[in-house]
TrEMBL record:
Entries under InterPro entries matching the protein: Glyco_trans_35 (IPR000811)
Glycosyltransferase is among the record's keywords: yes
Subunit structure, as described in the record: Homodimer; enzymatically active. Interacts with PPP1R3B; recruits the phosphatase PP1 which dephosphorylates and inactivates PYGL/glycogen phosphorylase.
Protein name (Swiss-Prot/TrEMBL): Alpha-1,4 glucan phosphorylase
Reactions it catalyzes: [(1->4)-alpha-D-glucosyl](n) + phosphate = [(1->4)-alpha-D-glucosyl](n-1) + alpha-D-glucose 1-phosphate
Biological process terms in GO annotation: glycogen catabolic process
Gene assigned in the entry: PYGL
Signal peptide: none
Protein source organism: Liparis tanakae
EC number annotated for this UniProt entry: 2.4.1.1
GO MF terms held by the record: glycogen phosphorylase activity; pyridoxal phosphate binding
Source domain of life: Eukaryota
Amino acid sequence: MINLGLQNACDEAIYQLGLDMEELEEMEEDAGLGNGGLGRLAACFLDSMATLGLAAYGYGIRYEYGIFNQKIRDGWQVEEADDWLRHGNPWEKARPEYMLPVHFYGRVEDSKWVDTQVLKMKMMMMIMITCTMRDKYL
């Protein structure tokens, strides 16, 4: 909404429907992404580019499940899948025309890798990073 300049119009429409924008925002699933070393570094680069007003593309790996949800049961840590895509993701568009095989692990038979393939599909996801003036000077 911010990216398209529709924030105020959407806020007003939501209000007229008797809904609260902040409550709706709280309902949206959040992927546990960008918390690892390289993911955090990539997020910092994107944040810096947004702060400087630089247009850019970012490439990453989109996992079906995020990091994980941690629960404590009977004094033990239990990990559960972070099923952040169970309701789909309205901010992404699948691009099956760019489906490609990705080879990994496996073994060699007759000088060829076998049992090594998964298919990857390009997914376009709009991400809008905003910062306040205070953030620019930290």
